[in-house]
Every structure is written in structure tokens, then in C-alpha cells.
């Protein structure tokens, strides 16, 4: 794995908790519990590898359709865990941010989210973004409803819950779909599908995804504009290493 080509922003669809538990003849809640434990292990691993931001799909806007017992567990367990380990919150060592709707959570859960964000806000260097009650369609519609035409790309991105583009998207459990996750932000992302359920996803699997990312040659279509923005790449964090000959190809396409 090349240390100089570590993706800045990695996103993971945390899939397979229930199937992992079923294989072990355990309830789905056990899979969610182990998946939550694994989240912070992988976050620390990502931080150590030099990744700057990790965004995870924890609970989608569609997950409310799951059995009530399972949803109740997912809504109540974070509160229980927080109350048990609040004194260790500062030991996390990185910033935690939540994105998604907040109008369907209990006040107790909202208080937990608010406290975690406030008490980790001073941490720098690495950020864990947790998407809870999140759906990309919902995010884009909400952003559009805050704007008046004419609307530019920059206008829309400023209203999104997450403005930073994703470099590498990983989905666990072997499924090969996006499931309404960060549709705008992954426009230029590389995709990696891991054939392992989320509770079993380890550092070696993350490294494998990064090596896969590093093997690919990133071909990005230039957005040609007049004036000072001419030849600028779609996202400012990507350095322009495209040759002049490539630029001519893009202009003619």
C-alpha cells in the first residue's frame, strides 16, 4: 500500500450485521451490537492510515421499515452505550459529526448526538461522520428547497449535509449497489465491494480496499469554464495531473 496515495475521504456502507448474526444463530440485535463495536475500531485504523475523514451509513431513511423490535434496539442502544461510556468520550481522539434527519429521533437520542458533537468538536486531524436517518434523495431535495433559481453547483453543495466529495466508497457484505447513499458526493469516487459482513470487516480489508483504489488511474472529466476557472478540476482537493493532451481530448468530446 502506497502511503502517498491514501484517499482523503472514505465512505462505507455498513452492510451485513443481521446476516452475520444469523450465521452464528444469534439475534439481529447482536449483529448490530458487534457492528457498532467494529465501527470505532475501523475509525481508529483509518485515522492511523492517514485517512482524513470517514463517513459511514449507519441508519437510512428506509430503515424505519424494518421490524419495530429491531428499530427500537437501534434507537435505544446508542443512548445506553453513551450513558455507560460517557467518561471515555474524550479518549476517542477525533471529531464525531452526525448527518441526516433529526425530526424522528427521541429527545434523549438527540441530546446524546448533541453532546457527542460538542465534546469532540475540539479534536482535529480526523473526522468520523455518522449518517443516521439519512437518505441522499432526501438530502438533495431539502437542499434544493432552500435555494432560489438560478442555482449553481456551488450553491447546492453549500446546502448539502455533507459538502466534501468522497474519494473511495466501500460496501461490505458483497452487495453491489449504492442504496441512496451520498449520491452527489460519490460522483467521482472509486467503488470497492468487500465480500465480508460489516462486523467481520478488519484493518486488512480496509487496506485491501485502499490498495484497490491505488491501482486505479483516476480519469476525471474536466469542467471547462471561461476566465480564471478554465481547466480547473471538479473538486479543489484533487491536484491537476492531467496532461495538456488530455485536456485537448476533453475539449473535443
Write up this protein.
With 253 residues, this protein is an alpha/beta fold. It folds into 2 domains: 3-218, 3-Layer(aba) Sandwich (Undecaprenyl pyrophosphate synthetase), CATH 3.40.1180; 220-253, no CATH class. The chain is built from 8 helices and 6 strands. The chain has helices at residues 17-23, 28-49, 68-85, 107-120, 136-145, 153-159, 203-215, 244-252; strands spanning 9-13, 53-60, 95-99, 127-134, 168-171, 190-193. It has a 6-stranded parallel sheet with strand order 3-4-2-1-5-6, with helices on both faces. α1 packs across α2 (28-49) and α5 packs across α6. The longest helix has 22 residues, at 28-49. The two termini are 34 Å apart.
Total helical elements: 8
> Unreliable runs, pLDDT <50, ≥5 residues?
221-253
Determine the strand fraction and express it as a percent band.
5-15%
Q: According to CATH, what is the class of the largest domain?
A: Alpha Beta
Percentage of helical residues?
A: 25-40%
From the 3D structure, determine the CATH topology of the largest domain: Undecaprenyl pyrophosphate synthetase
Number of E strands: 6
**What is the CATH superfamily label of the largest domain?**
Decaprenyl diphosphate synthase-like
What is the residue-averaged pLDDT?
A: 86
- What's the Cα radius of gyration? 19 Å
- What separation lies between the terminal Cα atoms? 34 Å
What count of domains describes the coordinates?
A: 2
Shape: globular
How would you characterize the largest beta sheet? 6 strands, parallel
Structural class: alpha/beta
Strand order of the largest sheet: 3-4-2-1-5-6
From the coordinates shown, what is the CATH architecture of the largest domain?
Answer: 3-Layer(aba) Sandwich
Amino acid at each position: 500500500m502506497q502511503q502517498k496515495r491514501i484517499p482523503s475521504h472514505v465512505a462505507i456502507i455498513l452492510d451485513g450485521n443481521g446476516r452475520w448474526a444469523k450465521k452464528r444463530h444469534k439475534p439481529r440485535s447482536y449483529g448490530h451490537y458487534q457492528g457498532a463495536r467494529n465501527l470505532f475500531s475501523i475509525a481508529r485504523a483509518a485515522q492511523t492510515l492517514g485517512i482524513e475523514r470517514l463517513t459511514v451509513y449507519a441508519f437510512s431513511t428506509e430503515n424505519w421499515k424494518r421490524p419495530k423490535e429491531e428499530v427500537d434496539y437501534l434507537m435505544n442502544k446508542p443512548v445506553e452505550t453513551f450513558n455507560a461510556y460517557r467518561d471515555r468520550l474524550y479518549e476517542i481522539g477525533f471529531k464525531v459529526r452526525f448527518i441526516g434527519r433529526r425530526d424522528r429521533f427521541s429527545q434523549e437520542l438527540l441530546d446524546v448526538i448533541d453532546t457527542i458533537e460538542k465534546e469532540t468538536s475540539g479534536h482535529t486531524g480526523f473526522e468520523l461522520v455518522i449518517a443516521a436517518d439519512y437518505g441522499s434523495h432526501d438530502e438533495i431535495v431539502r437542499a434544493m428547497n432552500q435555494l432560489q433559481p438560478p442555482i449553481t453547483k456551488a450553491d447546492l453543495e453549500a446546502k448539502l449535509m455533507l459538502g466534501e466529495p468522497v474519494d473511495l466508497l466501500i460496501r461490505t457484505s458483497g452487495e453491489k449497489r449504492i442504496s441512496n447513499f451520498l449520491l452527489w458526493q460519490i460522483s467521482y469516487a472509486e467503488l470497492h465491494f468487500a465480500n465480508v459482513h460489516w462486523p467481520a470487516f478488519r484493518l486488512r480489508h480496509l487496506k485491501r480496499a485502499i490498495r484497490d483504489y491505488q491501482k486505479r488511474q483516476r480519469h476525471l472529466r474536466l469542467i471547462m469554464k471561461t476566465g480564471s476557472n478554465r481547466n480547473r478540476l471538479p473538486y479543489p482537493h484533487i491536484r491537476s495531473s492531467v496532461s495538456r493532451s488530455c485536456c485537448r481530448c476533453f475539449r473535443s468530446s
